[in-house]
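# step 3/5: fold
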Amino acid sequence: MSDLKSIFFHFLRLGLFGEDDECPVPKLTDTEWSQLFAWSREQAVSGVWVDGVAQTPYRPPEAMWAQWIFHVMHIERMNRLLQETEQRWVKALESNGMQAEVFKGSSVARWYRKPLYRSYGDIDLVVIQGWKNVEPYLQVKGYAYRHEEDSLAVQDGNIPIELHPWRESLYNPVVNARLRQLLSVDRAGNELYLACLMLHLRRHVLTYGIGLKQVCDVAVMLRRAPLDKERLERLLRQLRLIRFSQVLFAFIETKLSPKAIYPISLNSKDRSISLDHIIWKEGYTLKMEREATDMQRGKIQRIIGNAWFWLKRCTRLLTWMPDEALYFLGYKTLKRLSCHKI
């Protein structure tokens, strides 16, 4: 299994950067090819991964390869549609007195070798100016929407859109206020954009895990975006991201981009800690598993079970993000006490 994972990452590195160290690939069975592709889909990197395979002489059976090519073509078509939708929404909001930017999606895909091969998801728009006008605008236009914490989720045909007042929010109120101040004075910088990507990734690691797509976003920016490494390091310190950055960068160096230059030094201790379990065992499935478990429990069991789950998780991740884990635990406690339910 570990050898198959090595082959998986070999093809992924080729798709991301068009280069990798020599890695002889043994003759793979149909089942092994199917497993590799299944992993690429589970981790939302299938377009990039298939492109990595295409740069080698290795191929799955012809019928399987044809299906993969059609899959990549579908990703390309959907990404074009999402880009058109992003721009339409940005212009529509602007014409109605609001200013918005695209976060993640095409705004990070531009750093990929082949931007249209990045797996698509929903559209994230950050409303920089005029947030208070967003909900009235949606009502006037007749869009159905719902509130999700500090964002608004909208459906535009078959395309889900999330509107946010900020790129990211933190549970630590002091650092959150610092982030908002930084965004108010230097929104255009690549360094702050990358830091926000990392904050978003850390939030997912803290809650239900993360997949490889978001890690690849960070990896390609480290390699391809023009970055002032000294400024990036200052931002990581200001946002209390250093310890998590060491864990994340060590994973990227080991699995995705050995040639990247990092703004902070990594040591053997950093490299001994891995995101493997969170990515491969939790990733995009832990939340669904928790929700399925909750549906089978009574109210008291659900309360106790969830309290124990979050306590264990925050304790486990305390060394990676100490203050954020503690504030998150406090946030979950206060939220449940206020609504008297889990």
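# step 4/5: annotate
Residues 67 and 337 are 50 Å apart (CA to CA).
# step 5/5: archive (pending)
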